[in-house]
Amino acid sequence: xxxxxxxxxxxxxxxxxxxxxxxxxxxxxxxxxxxxxxxxxxxxxxxxxxxxxxxxxxxxxxxxxxxxxxxxxxxxxxxxxxxxxxxxxxxxxxxxxxxxxxxxxxxxxxxxxxxxxxxxxxxxxxxxxxxxxxxxxxxxxxxxxxxxxxxxxxxxxxxxxxxxxxxxxxxxxxxxxxxxxxxxxxxxxxxxxxxxxxxxxxxxxxxxxxxxxxxxxxxxxxxxxxxxxxxxxxxxxxxxxxxxxxxxxxxxxxxxxxxxxxxxxxxxxxxxxxxxxxxxxxxxxxxxxxxxxxxxxxxxxxxxxxxxxxxxxxxxxxxxxxxxxxxxxxxxxxxxxxxxxxxxxxxxxxxxxxxxxxxxxxxxxxxxxxxxxxxxxxxxxxxxxxxxxxxxxxxxxxxxxxxxxxxxxxxxxxxxxxxxxxxxxxxxxxxxxxxxxxxxxxxxxxxxxxxxxxxxxxxxxxxxxxxxxxxx
Length: 472
Ligand SMILES: Cc1cc2nc3c(=O)[nH]c(=O)nc-3n(C[C@H](O)[C@H](O)[C@H](O)COP(=O)(O)OP(=O)(O)OC[C@H]3O[C@@H](n4cnc5c(N)ncnc54)[C@H](O)[C@@H]3O)c2cc1C
Ligand code: SF4
Description:
Layout: H1 5-10, H2 21-24, H3 37-44, H4 54-58, H5 65-73, H6 77-85, H7 91-97, H8 109-113, H9 123-137, E1 152-156, H10 160-171, E2 175-179, H11 188-191, H12 200-212, E3 216-218, H13 229-234, E4 240-243, E5 249-250, E6 263-265, H14 266-274, E7 293-297, H15 301-312, E8 317-322, H16 333-342, E9 345-348, E10 350-358, E11 361-375, E12 381-385, E13 391-394, E14 397-400, E15 404-405, H17 409-413, E16 438-440, H18 443-446, H19 451-471
Parallel strand pairs: 1-2, 1-4, 2-3, 4-16, 6-14, 7-8, 7-14, 8-9
Antiparallel strand pairs: 5-15, 10-11, 11-12, 11-13
Helix pairs in contact: 3-5, 3-9, 5-6, 5-9, 6-9, 7-9, 10-19, 14-15, 15-16
The structure holds flavin-adenine dinucleotide and iron/sulfur cluster (SF4).
């Protein structure tokens, strides 16, 4: 049945079923439970099938959004998945963690017509449903791999950029080895983003797919330490290398008290909980801070993940301290909403001045109040401290979540590899670096960015690697 635009606009946006906040704040299970098939169909049928499809322009990898929604509206979820897969390799991941409200959904005509971005077609939720349905029913065949070319490619780092390159290069028939420093592959998808936002079984299914295609995954292998990047090319017979080592080096505030016991970087805290399964104390021996009152410093997705993890690890109070206002906070609105529902307490226009301690352990935090001044280079209004506004909040744990930088290891062990002032590898739009046969992409090039951007970079670099190998 063909619906008129007016009838489509009258269909209510389908809400995402979620675990009750009081319950979920104390378990690691996924917060958003996913649409039913009927909901996915109904939501997809809200799409107006715009001729100019602004949503496609809003998507960093240009998924044919009206195309997949058309299939989903008819209940053809595997057809929808096929359309998505032409542009995106990780739809079950992106459907969950992409900031759609700032990308495809921000420009969606339905949202504009209803004057509310929250009423845009829920593209990400339908994408998630299609990907989950195909994975759960096992109906997606492994991607075809071309006959062996005899060429060998090393992919360094197994986050979304590396996973994408490994898949696309393997499809062209080249041998691929994926090197990962940690004991488990997956990058931030596994060590950073918590289980309650992205179940690890979903990432594992993608890695299983890679292995099924013949990609070799070598963990506990730190390129730059276990083996130099140049040795992979000069001694180990690799014809090309892709570096997708991410931005895993945490930033600190460099304030008094940051070395006290009870102060963590968000990276370490989340890695202990996610990768080392500290939350599952019946099965894992990983120690982690169990504090009653925890302050999280920062306002991005990493800060939200750390704060919500702290609640799940038993903190009685979690205080998120951010020096601007909610409007400037870089975290996704949905994550802020979820954190608040779960009981995280937000302190805006405040920032840590020093961390207080006794006998080497954290006992509190001294903060300053701020007000907003003129906009800075990022366009956000600059926070200006109010002199004499110091106050102390008692705390027994602090998590510093101020963002991440790139690890300097590969740069410092690879002569001739050009990096910029912030340590990011310099690469052109095809991922080509200053060294022949060495490509790079994802957070190591962009700085801490997003999953979909890392994936998009991976796709472009893989195309360039495949082209280079076809010509040699
Ligand atoms: C806590 C957290 C939450 C986030 N939430 C979101 C979100 O909701 N939505 C979103 O879109 N983005 C989010 N991001 C950002 C997103 O995860 C990253 O932009 C993305 O993962 C970058 O992908 P990548 O492949 O470049 O690197 P990564 O995912 O960082 O993977 C790099 C991998 O390389 C490995 N590695 C590093 N050095 C070496 C070496 N020398 N040798 C071998 N291996 C090495 C690392 O161990 C790691 O596994 C979040 C990030 C964090 C930290
Ligand atoms: S902009 Fe919105 S309504 Fe238009 S095609 Fe894209 S998803 Fe559909």
